[in-house]
Structure formats: C-alpha cells, structure tokens
Amino acid sequence: NIERTRLPGPRLWRILSAHFEKACCHAVMDVALFAVDSLRQLASKFLEQDSLGGSDAFQRDFLSPFVNVFERSRTKEVRELVIRCCSQLALGHVGELRAGWRSMFAIFEAAAVDSEKFIVSLAFQTIEKVVREHFARISDAHAFGFLVSCLGAYAAQDKDPNVSLNAIAFLRYCALEVAEGGVPDDDMGDHSRVEQLRQPLSPPRHRQRHRRSASLSSPVTPVSSGASTLSSRELDVTRDEKLFWYPLLRTLSVLTLDERMEVAHASSEVTGDILDFHGSQFSLPFWMRAMRRVLIPMCCGIADASDWKGAATVRVTTDLEWINTMCMHTLEILVSVFAKNYEALHVALLSDVAGFLGALVRYKESPAVETVPVMALGAMLKLVEACAEKMDNEGWATIFYHFTDTLTLLSPNYQDLMNAYDQAVHTPPEIPSAPKQPIVVSAGGGDTPAKRSLTDEAAAGEHIDGDHEASDLKGEESEEDGGPATSSAEDSGTSKSSQPLISPAAYARFMAAVREARRVVAVAMMVVSATTRTLEHAREHGVPFNDMKGVVDDGLARAATRTSAAIATKPRLRGVLAASPIEVPPRPHQRGVSSLLENVLKTEGDCACAVLAVLEKLGAGDGSRPSGSSVTACERRLSSLCVTSLAYFVRALHEYEAASVEDDGAFAVAPGLTTMQSWALECSARESGACCALRAAARMRARTLGRAMPDLWPCLATLARAGSSRVSELVSALLGERTALAAGASGEPLAMQILGE
Questions:
Q1: Could you report the per-residue pLDDT of 197-214, keeping only the tens digit for each?
Q2: E-assigned strands of 474-547?
Q3: In this structure, are residues 632 and 654 in contact, taking their beta carbons and an 8 Å threshold?
Q4: 289 pLDDT more than 70
Q5: For the whole model, what pTM was predicted?
Q6: Strand partners, 501
Q7: DSSP secondary-structure letter at 502?
Q8: Contact indicator for 465, 472 with CB cutoff of 8 Å
Q9: How many Cβ atoms sit within 10 Å of the Cβ of residue 629?
Q10: What's the gap between Cα 179 and its chain centre?
Q11: For residue 107, how far is the Cα from the chain centroid?
C-alpha cells in the first residue's frame, strides 16, 4: 500500500504503530529485534516516498514509535538497536528529514540519560556527525531549539565526562551559528511541541547528600519564553533573543551547577564568552532578562530563575563545595560582562547588579557565611574599578547608595543577643537545698568560689550545649578537677533560688547569637574598608566630596560608632557583651580577646581609623583650597568623627570613675574581674580608635582644629587621666604643639592644667 494516496496512510499508521511498539517490547528478544528492524525499514520507505514523507505531521508520527520503544524497553540490546536504526535514518536521509528531526532529537535526548555508557556514547556520535556536517539542514528544518535541548541533556549526563565537555563545545558552536545568522528567523515555530515530543530530562547530577537547591528537580531544558513575573520591558525582546539566545543561555547557566567542576567551569566559561562576544547584539530588554534570569541565578547557584525578584529575595545554594569553587568565578563573569557593556546597561541594570552584590554581603543563610561576603565585596570593588572611567555622577551616586544601604542594614542585632542571654540565664523557683549545686553565673563579679560565669565556663573548655547530659549540669566533678563547685547554699551564703542557672539549650542559642554578632561586626569592617577604597577611586576620577556626603554621614560615620552608641542607649548591653565568650584561639605570643565586648570595640576602633584616614585623604586631595580658607565639608566631618569617637571613650571613663566612687560593682561587668580590671580591658579595646582620633586632630589645619576645640576640651581633660600611656602621650603632644595655634592665648592655661593632671 506504499503507492496509495497519502490520505489513508496516516490513518493506517495510527493503528499499526501501536502494534509495532508492542512487538518491539516483546519479552522474546528475537521478536523484539526483528520488530525494531522492520520498523526501521518502514520508516526508510516512508521517507523515500514524497507523498508520505513530505508531510511534516506524518514524519513525526511514523518516527514517534522509536521514542516510545526506547523509553519502555528494559533490554539494552533493543535500545542499542533503536539508536543504530535512528542513526542510520538520520545520516542516510538527511535531505528528506524535516519535522522528523524533532523526533530524532527526542530519541537521542532520551538516550542521554540511559544507564548504559556505550549507548550514551553511541547516540552522541550521531549527534556529533549531524552537527558537524549537516547543521544547515537542522536549521532549515526549524529544529534548533530541539538540538539545544538535546545537547544540554548530553552535557548533564554523568556516564562519560568527555561527552559532557564535547556537548558544551557544540553549544558554543550553536551560539556562533546564531550570531552569524545561520539559523532562520522562523525557527522553532511551534515551541509548545517540545514538551509533547519528549519526557522531561533530569537535572545535572548533583550529590544526593547535599542537594544544591530544591528547585533542581526541574528539567535542564530551554525554558519557555513566557514568564509571568517578567516586567513589560523584559517581554519586549526580539524573536531571535526569545527563541534562540535565551534557551541557549539558560541551558548553559543550569549546567554550571554540575557537581563535576570541569563541566561547571566549562559551562560558565561558554556563558561568559557568549555574553562577552555577542552581547553587543542584544537589546536592553533582553539584557534585563539575561541578567535577572541567567546571570544572577547562576551566581547564586540555583536552577530556578524565578527566584530572583530583587535584593530582598536573594537565595544562595547550600552546596559549600560549589560556593568555594564556582561562586567567585561566576561573580567575575557577571562583573566582566556588565563592565564591557556598561554604556548600554548602566541606566537599567547598575542598581540591580550593585543591589545584588550588597544582598550577598548581607546574606546570612548560606553555610559559607564567612566567604560569600568576601567574594561579593571583591566583586563590588572589581565592578567599581572596571567601570570607574565610564561612570558619571549618577552612576557613582548609585554605588554610594548601595554601600550606604549595606552598611545601614549590616548591623548586629544586640537586642536579640540580650534576649538570648536572658533566656540562657534564669532564676529557678525556691527548692530545698541539695548537696550539690548547678552551674551558676556570677551577677556581681564572680568573687564567690561557688559562682561560675559564662566566660569562665568557656575558658575552662567545658562543653555546654542542647545535647549535654543532665549529669553535667549537676556538677558531678569536684572543684579540684576543674568541675562546677559543689558547695551548699549555706556555704555560699546564698539561696539556690537566687542563683541564676545556665540552661544548656538556651546557652547554645546564646552562643549562636554571639557568633552571629561577631560575624556581622567583622563583615561590617570589611564593608567599611571597601567603601573607603571606593571613595578614593571616586576622588581620583573627579567626583566632588558633596556627592560623597551621604555615604560618609549615613554609612561610614554610623558604622564607626555603632556599638558605642548602642551601649550608650542600652547600658545593660555592656554587661551582656562582657559576659559573652569569644571562641577564637589567641595568636601565638598574644593575649586572645576573651569577650565579645573587647572584640566589637576593637573592630569599631579599626573602622574609625579607616574612616578618619580616608577623610584625611579626601580633604588633602582638594589642592585648590588656600591654607586660610574656611573649613570644608570634609574637614567638618573629620573633626566631628574625632570628637564623637573621643566622647564615647570619655563616657565610658566617666562611668568607670562613678562606679569606683560608689564601689557598687556596677561597672565590673566582666565576670570575675574587679572594676579596675574591667576598665583596663575596655580601655585597651577602645585605645586604638582614640589614638587614631587624636592623631587626626593633631594633623588638622588650625582653622579646623580651632572650630573643634570647644568640643575637644572636655574630652582632652578626661583623657589625660584615662590610664593609657599611648593616649596620654598623644594628648600631651596635641596640647603642647597645637593648643596655642588653635585656641589662642586663652587656651593655654587650660592646656597647662590638663597637662598637669
């Protein structure tokens, strides 16, 4: 019946195809193999017959049984024969295949996830020949999108790494063909048929123990162009961009999540090269889509492009190995392609890119919270350096805004820390005295032998967490062995009901809050350093200081005094910080920081030093300013920060002196220390910041220093008796060298009085 008209042919095949599929999956192998070969002969005859093979619909119909047989058969010999038959049909009837290419690629795509390595390699050999020798035929048949989907499946398979790398290379070749116009404009006319012709593929093979993202269950296939969350501007893309470039880039970006680093690295390189070499062809709406749905998800290590809806919704993979090996590389690609196309993209996307990097700096859910902020800050600085020559004042204002926003939001939550401390330490109800007492926290300085503090507990190296045995809480060890004290309530002179207990589970939460506060303070210091470098770049490129005032006032100045301001408004915070142990071993030949109070105050001093240094550079950079001119905006902020830093130091000293006079132990917040010892620790922590402020004041112009002197006099008078030799020497130097110049003869008697003290 092959010569009969084409009308009954499709109707006959709808009946016979089901019969052939059943025969090809027969339990007797000889029957199955014979049926597959018979199906190949019929398909070959159909392709040779113009009246039947010339119909696109019928080509898909008479080749579809191969797809169903391959997916249903459990016999590797049958699946191998199916691939060999399809290879023969594809290479022997290149000229006759049109819509049939879609079915062919669906068959080869199914072979990519086969359990047998030789079947995967055999099928890919055919793909190689087709792409190398007959790419134009695929383009003419409007099957480019199906080819990209098929190559993506071979790149994702984990049976043969060489096949994966070759598939990625062919994806690069496909990009070159699209860029050179080798793909017709009307290709992929019926995109919805992709899902009808094949089963969804599995994603790149990820570790089963540490899934990078729950969204990786989606297939690694070109994503449909219709996205409900895209803006109206993003939807205004060209047909080539929607049907060719976007599926190609999405396929490559998902492949960067592969657990094989050579595959992930190769995919990211091809993605970057496509955007680098061909980005000039893309429209701004497509760049917006590529940035938000390809590059940013790729940098986060997630497969679901719909996750990115702004900096507030950023989500990073939980795969620590991928973060350590690929995150920085993908961020470099993002910065590189944006910087190269800055002129076309900065109006629409500079805020997105800077906001995304700022969100990564503040991100705290990732297991790599110690490294992700460093990588993001490095990428931010590279962005500034790469675009500095091209940025106008508006661009610099955008960068300054996001640095300010990051510094504002990156603040330790001291209220949560105090709440966690209160939950960890509580007073139990009145109960009869027992021969053994639980671990207690010293609320009055720890001078009673029966009292043990949180800091002492950490220093003793004892393990207290939510899983600790109850016997550990009852102090079974003796005092001679370093365990908790076991004296009775009568021995200590205190009722058990008045002694605060340590709850192990709550203590674990408290220590988590301590670690988080310390991490945030450290990251804030890094952001301050990055911001000061950015301000220096801005000044080198002619940005006036008036454009920097916002980031200095709202970002840097607040970051340099944030902890001191919090202690001033919440007096109890000093005690909580002093009672919070730091789990950091000391450096060789150095005394380690024993409490969070010392840690945050030392870091705050470093921040103040960095900000003062950059303000001095910015002030000195204005070479047009006469020596006797009025005080500039930069100098006003420099003197204000000096006064503020010294004022907080003086406030702490006044509180110490008041506590010493009253002798009520109110200032002796460091557990186990006297009032004098507590001040010595805090003075040491604040010393570096105060010294930087005094040195900066000593280098001020006379007019600037004279303007600041009314506020500096009371600070200097108190600092002279702070007990720090470094501070006293700097106060003496400032008063001896600059007082007469800054304050005139009227200031000399007061200066001599302070020097006498």
A1: 333 333 344 333 333 333
A2: 501-502
A3: no
A4: yes
A5: 0.79
A6: 426, 440
A7: E
A8: no
A9: 12
A10: 33
A11: 39
